[in-house]
Design brief:
D-amino Acid Aminotransferase, Chain A, domain 1; globular; Rossmann fold; 3 domains; about 20% strand; about 325 residues; Dna Ligase, domain 1
Length: about 325
């Protein structure tokens, strides 16, 4: 039995990833309750602050995805309420959530990351879409991968193989955010590396290999059972596995993250990993990558979540 008394799990929110967040929150709440923890699961609405003030939790576990769940806002609120929480602080979250900023910081450590262009919607329209897209292709070549600079779950993201596909990809991207990140597409094996820190330094968990049926790991492939095949641990050489682990830990450290994170990368045909992005609030659903990695490591998800909460409470 844990020394933790009352634990708060935050789930839901108003981002495009609300439904995924609710599933993550439900999963974390279930595994914690199974371990004897008194769990309260709440959405981020007007009742949250009065509830916390009336009955302060010993610690909080944030399972909010996108928007305020990962941009540091809700963590700032928790600090105002004097509630310890699992995960990175507000400033680190703001930087990690902005993919171009995270790429720049990680690249400065010497890590490989695909060449890219960041383009706000206003610039795209004001300077002429056709001319702008032509210059992007001249600079980066084809194929390309287009995604919102802020956001997750592959919403608004698409693979562009021809010049004719790029305008529609940009429109789809801008439907989910005001800024697009256009990257040179790297062909290879898609890998997710989860990192956990119990207070003795960040350590990488076994890599998860992602093989979507449709060839692209989009929203449906992520959250529809049977649409993607996962291998945990990934079918990589020992050298590639070690390189992926080092990259994830380096990214976690460079971005000043805390407790847990998940780094997404591509391993090319030569076994070299390329950093794509990092997630400060990894999904916890039945098809999410973080729980798969935890299971592959031989750990129990409920025990790990409890340990992280205890660490946050003692840190506070």
């Amino acid at each position: 039995m844990s020394d933790l008394g009352h634990v708060l799990v935050l789930a839901g929110g108003l981002s495009y990833e609300r439904e995924v967040s609710l599933k993550s929150g439900r999963r974390v709440s279930e595994v914690l309750r199974a371990g004897g923890i008194d769990v309260e699961t709440r959405d981020t609405d007007a009742s949250l602050i009065p509830s916390v003030l009336a009955d302060p939790p010993d610690a909080a576990f944030v399972t909010l995805h996108g928007g305020s769940g990962e941009d540091g806002a809700i963590r700032s609120v928790l600090e105002l309420l004097n509630v310890p929480y699992v995960g990175a602080g507000p400033e680190a979250c703001r930087i990690a959530f902005d993919k171009p900023s995270a790429k720049a910081i990680v690249k400065a450590t010497g890590i490989n990351t695909p060449d890219s262009v960041t383009l706000p919607k206003e610039t795209f329209h004001d300077l002429g879409a056709t001319a702008m897209l032509e210059r992007i292709i001249d600079r980066l070549g084809l194929p390309l991968f287009v995604k919102p600079a802020r956001g997750g779950s592959a919403l608004g993201a698409s693979l562009v193989r021809t010049a004719e596909e790029l305008p529609a990809a940009m429109v789809g991207c801008f439907a989910y955010g005001d800024t697009a990140l256009i990257e040179r597409y790297v062909s290879g094996v898609e890998i997710a590396i989860s990192v956990v820190d119990h207070g003795d330094g960040p350590k990488a968990l076994p890599p998860v290999e992602i093989v979507p049926d449709a060839g692209v790991y989009d929203y449906a492939a992520r959250y529809t059972a049977g649409h993607t095949e996962f291998f945990a641990p990934a079918r990589l050489s020992p050298a590639a596995t070690a390189a992926c682990a080092e990259m994830a830990v380096t990214a976690h450290t460079a971005l000043r993250l805390r407790d847990l994170s998940r780094t997404d990368l591509i391993v090319d045909a030569d076994g070299h990993p390329h950093f794509l992005e990092v997630n400060v609030a990894p999904g916890m659903t039945e098809t999410s990558l973080f729980p798969l990695s935890v299971e592959a490591s031989g750990q129990d998800l409920g025990t790990l979540c409890r340990t992280l909460l205890e660490s946050a409470a003692s840190r506070h």
